[in-house]
């Protein structure tokens, strides 16, 4: 029996753990909510990706799922909740309304949640299929592992700026 050794960097190990333990905060405002329920049902088994536990407190969440249309009046609320989430954190726009405002071209609808918070992954569709959402989770996992999420890049830049004085 030989001795097996694995080496890695602390950051890579932490990112590996993070990508398999998303705690999502579902910010559900509209009809995409039905599809969100499908995604979290046993049929699609989101637990395979370690993302099965929604948290209804932003302080215990690290993945904001913006599910549905965001109005201009909801924008500041979305931002406040996102700001209260644990770091590092990620955000997923679930459906075309959360991504771009969808077919609502009016004064009250925000043209995408990225007007107020940084979005890491956009999922198209009205509503998106659960498989698309799972695909987006896998995409996000890769991004987290490579430290390419918005909050990770921001932290890296802040560290570099502090080191360079
Ligand atoms: S993308 Fe379609 S299903 Fe989702 S909230 Fe907008 S209108 Fe509703």
How would you describe the overall organization of this protein?
The chain has 165 residues and is of the alpha/beta class. The protein has a single domain (18-163), classed as Rossmann fold (3-Layer(aba) Sandwich). The chain has 6 helices and 5 strands. It has helices spanning 10-19, 32-39, 75-84, 96-100, 130-145, 150-163, and strands spanning 23-28, 53-54, 63-67, 90-94, 121-123. It has a 5-stranded parallel sheet with strand order 2-1-3-4-5. α1 packs antiparallel against α5 (130-145) and α2 crosses α5. The protein starts with 9 loop residues before the first helix and ends with a helix.
Largest sheet: 5 strands, parallel
User: Uncertain runs with pLDDT below 50, 5 residues or more?
Assistant: none
Provide the CATH top-level class. Alpha Beta
| Quaternary structure of the protein | single chain
Strand sequence of the main sheet, in spatial order?
2-1-3-4-5
Please give the CATH architecture.
3-Layer(aba) Sandwich
Question: Over all CA atoms, what is the radius of gyration?
Answer: 17 Å
Question: Which structural category fits the helices and strands?
Answer: alpha/beta
Work out the strand percent.
5-15%
What count of structural domains? 1
**How would the global form be characterised?**
globular
SSE order and pairing:
Layout: H1 10-19, E1 23-28, H2 32-39, E2 53-54, E3 63-67, H3 75-84, E4 90-94, H4 96-100, E5 121-123, H5 130-145, H6 150-163
Parallel strand pairs: 1-2, 1-3, 3-4, 4-5
Helix pairs in contact: 1-5, 2-5
Bound molecules: iron/sulfur cluster.
Iron/sulfur cluster binds at residues 30-32, 68-69, 95-97, 102, 126-127.
């Amino acid at each position: 029996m030989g001795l097996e050794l694995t080496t890695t960097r602390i950051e890579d190990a932490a990112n590996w753990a993070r990508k398999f333990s998303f705690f999502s905060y579902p910010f559900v405002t509209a009809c995409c909510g039905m599809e969100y329920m499908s995604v979290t049902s046993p049929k699609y088994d989101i637990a395979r990706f370690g993302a099965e536990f929604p948290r209804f407190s932003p302080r215990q969440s690290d993945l904001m799922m913006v599910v549905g249309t965001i109005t201009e009046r909801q924008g500041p609320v979305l931002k406040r909740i996102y700001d209260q989430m644990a770091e590092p954190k990620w955000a997923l726009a679930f459906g075309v309304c959360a991504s771009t405002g969808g077919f609502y071209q009016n004064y009250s609808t925000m043209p995408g949640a990225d007007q107020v918070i940084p979005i890491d992954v956009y999922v198209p569709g009205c509503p998106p299929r659960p498989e698309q959402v799972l695909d987006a989770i896998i995409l996000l996992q890769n991004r987290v592992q490579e430290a390419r999420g918005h909050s990770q890049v921001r932290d890296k830049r802040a560290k570099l700026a502090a080191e360079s004085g």
